[in-house]
Amino acid sequence: MADRELPPVADHSPPPSTEAAAASQRPDRPRWLTILLRVLLGIVIALFLVWAILFITKGRFLKGTFEKIASNSTERQVRVGGDFQFYFNPINVKFLAEGLTVSNPAWAGGGNFLEARKFDSQIATLTFLFGKRRMNWLGLDGAKVDLAWDADHRRNTWTFGDPNAKGEPFDMPVIRQAAVSNSGLRYTDPSMRVLANVRFHTVEARDSKVASAVRFEGDGRARGTPFTLTGALLSPNAVLAGGRNQLAVTIRAVDAVGTITGTLREPTELEGSDLKVDLRGRNLAHLFEVFGLTVPDTRRYHLASAFTKRGEEWRFTGLRGTFGDSDLSGGFSVFQREPRVFLTADLATRTLDMLDVAPFIGYNPDRLNAEGKSGTITQVGGTPRLLPDTPLNIAALKNFDAKVDWKVRQVRSKNVPISNIKLGLTLDNRLLTLSPLNFTMARGTVLSDIRINARRTPVFTNYDIRLTPTPMGKLLAGFGVAEAGTSGTVSARVKMTGSGDSVRTSLANSNGRIAFILPKGTFWTRNIQLSELDVGTFVQKMFEDKLKKPVEINCGLIGFTVRNGVAAADPILIDTSKNVMLGRGGFSFKTEAIDLAFRADSKKFSLFAGQSPVGINGYFAKPGISVLSPELLGRAGAGLGLAVVATPVAGLLAFVDVGDAKSAACGPVLAGATAQAQRTTKGKPRDDVGQGTTAKDEDGKGSGEEKKKQRKKFLGIF
To answer: What is the pTM of this model?
Structure first.
């Protein structure tokens, strides 16, 4: 029995549950994860408690802490005289301060940057953390803001912290909705001479919305010029519904009225806005002066364009309009950059009226419009002056840099056939470059590079102007002379430097060379015969109806050397198939006096030839021609004497041209060489050019002895 096997004992314990089985199979949670979860839970609970405490107490107990921290961080005195609230509602920050003041930095001379009876706001917390300041709500009552730069335009009142730190550009926070009453702002910039005051009309909130428009007005002075502005945000609640704000502003300054209309992405944000600008007034230069920029004077204008802001760029596109009787299209941009504003423009004009060109070279368009050609002439000391004397606005050139491209298809002019103007203008720290300044004239092309250096005192200008071969007939036709029978061309170059802040003063102190080259071609016979006063041949051809028969021009050079504003012929030499035309004298940019004489020596025997100079005298504004020179009178006297002593036929001998003119070697002529380099066809130096000069001093008269010597020297070569 001992060996009998006992029956198994039954297990009456309950089977293990499914959860227990799963727990027994799950690995243990890491201790660090448990701690982390508990810490995060604690932070959430703590934040909730902070939120709850702030929400219940409205954060009023933080008033002293706020004043201390704000004062230390801004290095200004920040005070709250009345109620203070700072809490999350529910996630955006609710900030309210009554009797809030923020002082100005010491250099601003005291006062407050901000003061408000009531400052109430809802600040978007998340966007604030990521660097974009946005207020969903701003309520202001009795608020005044003082925005100011120092005299050096280096520090400003809205850059907080170190009061000597460089001022940052004003960055307006985005304000989606506002209620404003009895508030305004003041802006001053002594260096730009700008003072502005803007006042906001009272706006009341109703049911979390404001009235249908936020209206404002203001006035001030910009560079001594008063201006006014009125405007409104016409739909301040549209943003809350996903729409855009409608803006309308009208600005009046000097003789100009400008309106800005369109939509804003946010009520206080110009970035990416869709705006339209309309400007009209009497003179565009007056308006640009308000902004410290300089442009030539214009007649009455009306311009319209789209307008927006991209970063530091203020962009005007789709420009269309007129100034005077000319049209203008294109676009331009203004970049807010240091140390100067940068202006870029790409402009086009279909038709430019000659009257509207006048301001670009210093003439007054209103006077020209009223007086015609005489509007270009002024009287100085009893003598007429033609060269413009309008000074360059050097002070304005310090304020901005520029790069402008302007194309003009056609110039409307009665006499001068100009078209296809291409202007490239660059301004870099008072260095003004007009390159290229090209245009088509009578099927020729004028190529110009002009450099005006206002960094120097006085202003120094470098002129380089070239005329490509141009048909003389077409060119003369533009001045009212029939072109038939003339196939010759002319090319030219003006290369000079001058000092002075106007066209007249610059040329009056200029040095360099002017040369017009005439290659082989034909001219009217009449032009040649009149120049040499060959009365016999002229009359003969007139009766034979051969007045317009072409005369061959072999080559010609009309050259001047300019020293201290006085241009002396160097040389004037035109070689034709029948004669050699010579010139002496010159002109003065100082007095604008002209003292030139031309004579043509025949290569063939000719009877009744005066062989006497044709004089061109007077002034640029009023030139004169003198045919009866002392030499011609002397020949007439000699002829009369011979006729009395001998016979009337003998009197004709005084007017005989034996035809001994020396033909010119065309190589030096076509190369524009000076008188010293000129040669005859036999290779010998010419002794009949390069000895004339001008004699008039600054008053245009000169001393009697000097004029005697010059006259003897001038006429003695003939």
So the answer is: 0.72
